[in-house]
Specification:
With 515 residues, the protein is of the alpha+beta class. It has 13 helices and 27 strands.
Length: 515
């Protein structure tokens, strides 16, 4: 975990490789999991939905299936949050085999006020997705004030343990006070801890109701946990060998929280010190850069080509130089490449946080048995993904259609913008992203102790970003790095380019310190 006042990053590493990355900045205006007192802007009977003003600019989308109109008893959900939002399984999902819904116009009218929670961030031109089925995630429980059932995360598989946890949760839940889901982390929790957490969550709900009663719509009544706090709450468990953080303030907050909920994990929390940054020491930033690459090489010599578009993400599998046992057995060669590609695709979807519709063009296989093997391999490796995914059958053309849960813009879309120079075909880093890259690069230069003065040359839009949004940045960097720093704009630079010029001769040392 890496945290500064300007941005926070969380990187999950598995088998010494980057598996998942999340980030947040104050200027991203994240609202996932936040609860608002909204006002209905319009009711649309044709699509059985309403647009609700929550005061964030874009009206939120509320489908009839997300109103409080009763619930399906057999939908327990998985009870787990996504690291920065409310718990999943908050009642019922649209089009998931639920009972027929009464017309939305019978329950909502224009100008009506109601409490709603954001379940999906605004993406591109679409506003946020909303639900009126509020859920409050804790470490061991998800509390649903408007529900009535008690469920257990599907990831807890033992029948006896599930029954035990359900009974424990039912015992601590007063009559007519809502519903609960026991989360995966709560598999070995004690009844005492469950009761303590329910008491906290129930009081939080009372506070939310009180704030809603004293405010006018549209307004925010509850903010979700910050990125780092949410990840600690939702993910950190004895399955992690270590948790490393480079911010003293974040470290103290994490230690205080872990002490209160799971003190056995304290010895796994470490504060990173030293001249080399935490992400540089573990090669995280370099791996993030690779995650933006269009082509992903496979060990066999084949490759994946990943192309995001407005409607979907296409992934093409190529054999490359892989020939297997030779020309005598091309079907086996293709099968091995496709199996390797299936494993890598699952990793890349998670690493890039790709959401929505995905179409994979595997290499054509004649054998139905081999097509089934590839699909099983893909589904098996998708199983470790926290985001809900569904992969359909392999077509005769070798295509697999998939869907992956999308609750926020991908890291790629958040860190980049459409390149105006190429007519919108490609993307470039935003000025805010370039400023953070410059900051990290200067920190490396300071750690090397080989430079005294540096001129940072940037595109005028990046210089304008610094002057208008972060006027104190250069002063803070001078104090932190002990370098003499100057910023110089250059209209000939690309928007996402910067150069470090060292000393009186202004020697270009960018490549020496850039990731």
């Amino acid at each position: 975990m890496s945290a500064t006042p300007e941005e926070s990053w969380v990187a999950l590493r598995e088998d010494n490789k980057l598996a998942e990355v999340m980030f947040d900045r104050p200027d991203q205006n994240r609202v996932l999991g936040d609860i608002f007192l909204g006002r209905v802007d319009a009711v649309l009977p044709g699509i059985q939905a309403a647009f609700v003003d929550i005061g964030t600019g874009k009206a939120g989308f509320l489908h009839v299936s997300d109103l409080n109109l009763g619930e399906s008893d057999d939908d327990e959900g998985d009870g787990d949050g996504d690291g920065n939002g409310g718990g999943r399984g908050r009642g019922r999902g649209r089009g998931r085999g639920t009972r027929p819904q009464p017309p939305i116009q019978d329950h909502l009218q224009k100008g009506q006020e109601l409490l709603v929670q954001v379940t999906k961030e605004a993406i591109s031109t679409k506003g946020p997705r909303l639900t009126a089925q509020i859920s409050l995630p804790g470490r061991f429980l998800v509390y649903m004030p408007y529900a009535s059932r008690v469920g257990v995360s599907r990831k807890i598989e033992g029948r006896d343990q599930r029954t035990k946890l359900r009974k424990m949760a039912q015992k601590i839940l007063p009559p007519n006070s809502g519903g609960l889901i026991v989360r995966t982390v709560g598999e070995e929790v004690t009844a005492e801890k469950l009761e303590q957490e329910f008491t906290r969550l129930h009081q939080r709900w009372k506070d939310i109701q009180a704030r809603a009663g004293s405010q006018s719509a549209p307004s925010a009544v509850h903010r979700e946990a910050t990125l780092i706090s949410g990840v600690i709450r939702d993910l950190f468990s004895d399955k992690f060998e270590a948790l490393r953080v480079d911010s003293g303030q974040a470290y103290e907050e994490i230690v205080d929280y872990v002490k209160s909920v799971d003190p056995e994990l304290l010895d796994r929390v470490h504060l990173h010190r030293g001249p080399t940054s935490l992400f540089d020491e573990f090669g995280v930033e370099e791996d993030i850069q690779k995650a933006f690459s269009r082509t992903v090489p496979l060990k066999s010599g084949g490759s994946l080509v990943i192309e995001p578009t407005e409607a979907l993400v296409s992934i093409d599998v190529n054999t490359g130089r892989f020939t297997g046992k030779g020309k005598k057995d091309p079907e086996q060669t293709i099968l091995r490449t496709n199996l390797e590609a299936a494993r890598e695709i699952a990793k890349q979807l998670r690493l890039r946080d790709v959401g929505g519709i995905i179409v994979v063009d595997f290499i054509d296989m004649e054998s139905q048995e081999n097509r089934d093997k590839v699909l099983r391999e893909l589904r098996s490796h998708l199983g470790v993904d926290r985001a809900r995914t569904k992969a359909f059958e392999v077509s005769t053309l070798g295509l697999v259609e998939m869907t992956r849960q999308r609750v926020r813009p991908s890291v790629f879309n958040s860190l980049t913008s459409i390149c105006q120079s190429c007519g919108g075909i490609g993307r470039v880093y935003t000025p805010a992203t370039v400023v953070r890259q410059i900051e990290r690069t200067l920190n490396r230069a300071a750690a090397a102790r080989e430079e005294k003065s540096i001129v940072v040359r940037v595109h005028p839009e990046v210089a304008l970003r610094v002057m208008e949004e972060e006027p104190q940045l250069l002063r803070r960097l001078r104090e932190r790095t002990r370098l003499e720093l100057r910023l110089r704009d250059d209209p000939l630079m690309r928007l996402d380019e910067f150069r470090l010029l060292s000393g009186p001769a202004e020697t270009d040392v960018t490549e020496k310190y850039a990731a």
